[in-house]
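User: structure tokens for this one?
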Amino acid sequence: MAPPPSRPVLDVLRRHRRAAAVGCGSSMVHQTCEALVPVAIGLVVDRVIGTDDVPAILLSVLGVLLLFAVLTSAGTYAFVVIDRAQFDEAHHLRTAVARAVLRDPAVLRDRQVGDALSVATSDTRHTAEALGLVSFLASGCFGMVVAAVVLLRIDVALGLGLLVAVPLLVLGLQALTPQLEARVHDRQRSAGLAAAVAADLLAGLRPLRGFGGVPEAVRRYHLASAVSRRAAVGAAGATSVVVGVSTLATGAVLVATAGVAGAFVASGRLDVGEFVTVVGMASFLADPVRNISSCVQQLAVSRASARRVAALLAPPAPRAAEAGTALPAPLAPALTPGEVLGVVATDTATADAVTAGLRAAGDGRSTLVEPAETHLLGDTLAQALDSGPVPAGRGVALADALAAAAAPTDLDAPLADGGTNFSGGQRQRIGLARALAADREVLVLRDPTTALDAVTEDRVAAGVRALRAGTGTTVLITSSPLLLSRCDRVVLLTGDGRHASGTHAELLDHPDLGSEYAAAVAR
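Assistant:
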């Protein structure tokens, strides 16, 4: 698999740079107003103590109310902008994950379905949250700068102490994040694997009960769940360390600031209004410090999740057996419009290579490659058969496609999860009808009748031939004699590179490869 981008969170910020900038700006205004609240209250106290001017006092109170109005408006606007951007980004990432999986099934080659589901839901959300975390982290730092400037104007020693203590606090918290990020990444990965095991077991519950494999299935899930639990405990422990250290450091900064300010008041170095400002500022500092520590912690989660999303979206490196996706030479010139072409491969690797080559050669609009496994989506049979609009100028009636595939015709029939209320043969025929109704110029069917009995398979073979002959190119990658006997031409491909072409009957009598062909199509 190709290595994922080293800074996927930066890609999120670049995609929403306007929202991030507006959110940061509004959050900074919010934090600045919060930092100025102690200053405003201190000024009001000075006015009350130092003068009896009632209009001046009322004006000061109105100024404080106006400050709170700006504070609230800026904070609300920042949350609205950031939340909208986060929802948009999460949707974008979920769509990108779904598109990557649907376009190239090789993305899931080294993953279980449950793990991919965890990436598409939990990890995409955590990645999108980086937008808000960066904004709040920036506003927290800006709020502390404003507080430092105010304290420097009141007393240089207090300001310098804050400017030294706060960076040390932030750097100390940053030093803890690599371990936290690694623990969180392990937690996310192990949780995805546990979900994958659970999904696989639920999907195979019926056969598990049939051959008595439930105890072994429970044992395997218990092991996966135990690994996930240990990773979650490790991540929780690392998180507790970060939270504990940040709380202790915050308390130390607040106590030291309040103590020094109190000593300065006692010595006459500060007046009452300045004391109120310093005490209020010390109390305010808890908010940006908590925001910074929380954002540092959550950014570790976002980075870990972003790496998992980027790894899934990265194009998979082809394996040696999959390196060549070009059509085999016997097939390259053989896709004749209107022809029903059969392809017989003597081994699975060759059949996989042919399928991959046909998929790579198609453009997705005029070519449809229907895999052997059938997945039905929707709540009813009608929804499962709906594959979107057909290409312009083409169209096959759904009733004709259902008849050709000998599929169930009750379109209002409810569809259980994945079509489990239908038999395997019915699901296969429904998938075939869906492919026929899509009516692509090139239709590739991989083993479309493996779950059917001979009588039904013969009906389906005749129906596919009648519906597709002369209307588009149909490629049947199969070993079914009933399907191959209705093909205009059949190509035999062996694992060692030999090939032959002819009708089904001609290949059975082929002087060199007849025996291999007969063995490949024998039932």
